[in-house]
Known about the structure:
Number of strands: 23
Number of domains: 3
CATH architecture of the largest domain: 3-Layer(aba) Sandwich
Shape: globular
Strand order of the largest sheet: 16-20-17-19-18-23
CATH topology of the largest domain: Rossmann fold
Distance between the termini: 46 Å
Strand content: 15-25%
Radius of gyration: 23 Å
Largest sheet: 6 strands, mixed, barrel
CATH class of the largest domain: Alpha Beta
Amino acid sequence: MAGLAAAFGSGAMTNSIEEIEFTDVILATGTNTTENHPVLSSRIKRAVRQNNAKLIVIDPREIGLVKYATIWLRQKPGTDVVVLNGLMNVIIAEEIFAKEYVESRTEGFEALKKAVSSYTPEYVEKISGVPAEDLKTAARLYATANKASLLYAMGLTQHINGTDNVKSCANLAMLCGMVGIEGGGVNPLRGQNNVQGACDMGALPNVFPAYQAVANDEARAKFEKFWNVPLQGKPGKTIMEMMDSAEKGEIKAIYVMGENPMMSDPDITHVEACLRNLDLLIVQDIFMSETAAIADVVLPSACFAEKDGTFTNTDRRVQRIRKAVNAPGQAKADWEIIADLSTKMGYSMNYNSAKEIMSEINAVTPSYAGITYDRIEKEGIQWPCPNTDHPGTRFLHSGHFSRGLGLFHAVEYVPAAEQTDDEYPLILSTGRVLYHYHTGTMTRLSKGSEERCPESLVEINPFDAKNLGIEDGDTVKVTTRRGSLEAKSKITKRSDVGMIFMNFHFHEAAVNLLTNPVLDPIGKIPEYKVCAVRVEKA
Length: 538
């Protein structure tokens, strides 16, 4: 993974949002863009409608982008590596890969070639359900483009082999010479506002700001000197690892900021047991979420319009936000709450403004060194921006990769952790709908959103519904090895035969009571997109 992280910037888009509109081919996989990123999806639509771009969609559901697609590869859930390796098999077999680029800018090609050699179109069709001829068409379309942008989101990462899925995307893009060029790249679409900025600032268990490893003695010494405090060199725990440690009594307190694990984490029954086993649960949020409801202490924080600061969006663009109104009641900006707590606990944080904190970011975060408040007064700047004379970076890896050569990874298919059987014959996948956001903490308080989408629905294919004796609008019971819930059915061909889909916005039908908490061994992301279920009329 180290080679991939070095080459592709820790989850950031390699290219810019605006470039999507002017590329030749767009490959969108694991991203329901029209519902999860509706503004960005308008770029894709314009690229197709106005600029004659070709669109390849790889998705098990008939998402909104399908009607704009030149070709749609409908794979079985959890078989993404098979399809991506199959595309590369065709590209290598037909010798339409970027030979000069591969020779001069990458390493590990022979291992990749050997790994994908068994993923013939016929084998791919057998495992994934994608027709062999469609696979060939898509492979030729992507490989022969002058420039092609690969987009992905959590439909690719929320699997037990999510890291392998991302590596396969990187493999495909490098194989065809699409990284380091305008209009190309590997472009993850971040799931929430300022996720990129949080990661950039070190809100991960293994790094300081700018992805400087906590285990690196030199990096750690730098921050110890700047902050005048000793720092641990041992990486911390991810969210799911924290829950397990809370259950065992190894972690006594958890501080939750702007997160709602009682809705967003898999196997909620287990999550609640873990949180209730703590000595102290603190929640800092703008509304009383399901997690805040069981907290020992709730700290009211200001929303985006009630504070100053910056957001870093999905294409690495750092932008100003400005306080427009005062926060209600005793609510404070997040940084003020953290600084007050830290000071009371013995480490003084005497910041007077968000601008002061940005000055510190400039000093300790090399990729942000040139991104000052004055420079982003009117327009954002994309990192890396190493000094105040630098204009920012529209796309990464031009001429060379940050690690030197781009590293191919030989990736093999690993089936989903949970397979269907006689007791649980269908596959459940989860995601969002256009009218609500994440766990509904904000959007379910909006009258318009609630009117447009007032309840959770279970999408069932007509074939399965007929076999189960279920009609549209019936209340159905959905059961997995972890629990059951009831919700209304929606009979639709959007979900394939053998598959159902539910969103996770509604606590009345909290789908994460059902999902499998098994983790990707590297990324530690749960497998939200595939679990075995039974559906019956309630």
